[in-house]
């Protein structure tokens, strides 16, 4: 019995740790988080820039529209509509100065501002841009995996 326990306990511990690590890293690949935020009717906003999300590579895919908008009160926001992206751990929405990032290195070499964690990998959502941000200086919105430093999907912005 003791011989069995000497083998079973380490196997159980290793299996438990490996199983949890696998679940943490792989579960976002098949579990979607859907959101559906509407822009409040009283929040009259004008679109300044917009772009379409595209695939970053064969494993990281995205589609939908990104818009930078400004309210009558001067508040800037980023609005994602018809949006879907490959899910992953620790995804964030970034405004990036690079106008057309093709790779993770392009994003890393540029200046950026994090707008916060991605609320869901599917659906319409809105992010506030920090006050004092020069919107004209930013050329793209990207979905970025902070944990692994990987570009998931870029949207090149053009004037509306």
Concise synopsis of the structure shown:
With 160 residues, this protein is of the alpha+beta class. The protein is 19% helix and 37% strand.
What attributes characterize this protein structure?
160 residues, alpha+beta, 5-stranded antiparallel β-sheet, 4-stranded antiparallel β-sheet, 9 strands, 19% helix
Number of strands: 9
The global form is: elongated
Number of helices: 2
Order of helical and strand elements: HEEEEHEEEEE
Distance between the ends = 74 Å
The secondary-structure class comes to alpha+beta
Biggest sheet, in brief?
5 strands, antiparallel
Radius of gyration: 20 Å
Walk across the major sheet and give the strand order.
6-3-2-1-9
- Approximate helicity band: 10-25%
Poorly predicted regions: none
Query: What fraction strand?
Result: 35-45%
Mean pLDDT: 91
Describe the structure.
With 160 residues, this protein is an alpha+beta fold. It has two helices and nine strands. The strands form two sheets. It has a five-stranded antiparallel sheet, with no helix packed on it. Strand 7 (140-145) and strand 8 (150-156) form a beta hairpin.
Topology summary:
Elements: H1 2-26, E1 45-52, E2 62-71, E3 76-85, E4 91-96, H2 104-108, E5 112-117, E6 125-128, E7 140-145, E8 150-156, E9 158-159
């Amino acid at each position: 019995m003791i011989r069995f326990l000497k083998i079973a306990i380490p196997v159980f511990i290793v299996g438990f740790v490996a199983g949890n690590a696998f679940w943490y890293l792989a579960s976002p690949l098949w579990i979607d988080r859907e959101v559906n935020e509407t822009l409040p009717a009283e929040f009259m906003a004008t679109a300044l820039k917009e772009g379409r999300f595209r695939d970053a590579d064969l494993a990281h895919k995205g589609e939908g529209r990104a818009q930078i908008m400004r309210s009558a009160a001067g508040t800037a926001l980023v609005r994602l509509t018809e949006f879907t992206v490959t899910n992953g751990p620790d995804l964030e929405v970034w405004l990036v100065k690079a106008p057309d990032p093709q790779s993770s290195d392009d994003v890393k070499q540029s200046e950026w501002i994090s707008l916060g964690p991605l609320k869901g990998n599917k659906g319409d959502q809105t992010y506030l841009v920090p006050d004092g941000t020069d919107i004209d200086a930013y050329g793209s919105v990207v979905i970025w995996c902070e944990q692994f430093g990987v570009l998931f999907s870029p949207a090149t912005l053009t004037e509306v």
